[in-house]
Model the fold of this input.
Amino acid sequence: MHKNLQINTPAIPQILPNGSDVILGNIIEPQQLAIPIAPSPTTMFGPRGACLLPNGALWVSDTGHHRLLGWQNLPTKDGEPADWVIGQPDFYHEGQNAKNQPGRTTLSVPTGICVCGEGLAVADAWNHRVLIWKKLPEDSNVPADLVLGQANFTNNKPNRGGQAASANTMHWPYGVFYHQGRLFIADTGNRRVLIWHQLPTENGQPADLVLGQPDMISRNENGGSSPTATSMRWCHDIAFWDENLVVADAGNNRVMIWQGMPTENNAPCAVVLGQKNFNCVEMNQGVYFPNASSLSMPYGVGVADNWLVVADTANSRLLGWRKPESILSLQGAIADGLAGQKDFQSKGENRNFGLPKRDSLNWCYGIKIVNKTAVVADSGNNRILLWQFNYGN
Done:
């Protein structure tokens, strides 16, 4: 090749350019290899989810400390301390269920969190339940009003101690989502998504619809057979893209998309992202390095305008797809945008396995976008990133 010949390679569209505006939690200074992760108003340990509320407040599932952290207003500077805590007696204690019995203000591995009507819903994973507050908490240790998955606030056995699942039990629920009056729960350990057509009003209220299983009592991986358009392995997060249901099926290394809202049990999805077809489920489509259409354990999904953004967790990156005229064209589609890595073929934590930077990720578990603010649960770096999403790409 002639030494003066140049090849113009298209730039990779960065959906979250310029680095995060605000970092909450772990802020590593130059030459600093680690910091203590003891609980405080400013520290986090493996946060898995976050929720930016309509009133500007922010709630974070500080998963490893078994608590929720709340900010009354959207933080505007790095390391801003939380105003409220739920799940521990104060900011300096930790432990599952505050080292006591389960109750209305205790948590054991909280994960997904979302606005739920006028209130808040939290997946309390290792208590095998979801807690619901009818009004948004505006103080520390506000007791939850409602529990799903258990008959009361003191029980916490998976599937209420039974071997089979049912319409009113859960096993390690991870994700929660509320849309147009319906409540969706990723009941991960039962390999299914449960749907309530209206916001529940009673403790332990059974779900109305199930996806991922042929009925309410089954709980086998991929429905007990090979992967299909109906089956799930580890479903973790839920979103609506326009009016199309989206589920992150991390165990099958794919994102499932339904055309519209499913109306029947075990309804098949229309397309998947991350795999070439419904039967393939290998990480990064069976090779070590990723590409622009592959996924490795995607735990989170978020929507911004006409974009779907996926937390491609084990690849330590975010991928974005623009909504096409028909979602049917998305089967195995390549992504339109990227964040956290320099190109679509890279997967290293913090890009080169170095210290975290404002634009790097380490096992990002969650992504939610409100207006132009992306809230990223950068779990492996023990931090939450507030990042301006780029609609222009």
